[in-house]
Amino acid sequence: SAVIxxxxxxxxCQRGTSLTIQCQVDSQVTMMFWYxxxxxxxxxxxxxxxQGSEATYESGFVIDKFPISRPNLTFSTxxxxxxxxxxSSIYLCSVESxxxxxxxxxxxxxx
Amino acid sequence: xxxxxxxxxxDSYEGQEVNITCSHNNIATNDYITWxxxxxxxxxxxxxxxYKTKVTNEVASLFIPxxxxxxTLSLPRVSLSDTAVYYCLVGEGxxxxxxxxxxxxxxxx
Lengths: 111, 109
Fold this sequence. Notes:
The structure holds 2 protein chains of 2 kinds. Chain A is mostly beta strands. Chain A contains no helices and 11 strands. Chain A has strands spanning 4-7, 10-13, 19-25, 31-37, 43-50, 56-57, 68-72, 75-80, 89-96, 100-102, 106-110. In chain A, the strands form 2 sheets. In chain A, strands 2, 4, 5, 6, 9, 10 and 11 form a 7-stranded mixed sheet that branches. In chain A, strands 1-3-8-7 form a 4-stranded antiparallel sheet, with no helix packed on it. In chain A, a hairpin with a 5-residue loop joins strand 5 and strand 6 (56-57). Chain A is globular. Chain A starts with a strand and ends with a strand. By secondary structure, chain B is mainly beta. Helices cover 0% and strands 48% of the residues of chain B.
């Protein structure tokens, strides 16, 4: 199965700023998925990113708040924009490769 | 997307076999059933996947009845290191999947 390198692993950010999270996959994959996991909760899908097209966002998530880039088949970024304390969560990327493989997550704290 | 229902939490003593059942009444013909394990501060990790009957690997077994409306993850002789959240997912490959609440397993010494 694929191996995902996700960074940063954690960050503390000021409200009103933006953070870009990167995921690098060691093989080419068609779709990449971005999730949010709030403390003590399950994972919620933010969007699905295909290479060469705009990401598809789930209900409750919008492109202006969570812009996603997918420049090639091995890389994607998620930006959390204009952050507020409510954005404090773990953000994870995932790919489908003989079952879904997940990055180690980015723990974001907004102060 | 098939919705899944699992117990919120379970406790087990070390050395016991643990069975976690997942209900997925509206599973589609092409859907597979996959279980994941998540430790705190880590991403979910693939445990086992099946379509029907029984699948076994080095860490777990997965039992799926003929109607496929439920599945049971069986962990033999659990240890403290098996304390984690276990998620049952149902879906077809190359599509998005929806996570349910998961089952928080606490292994007691």
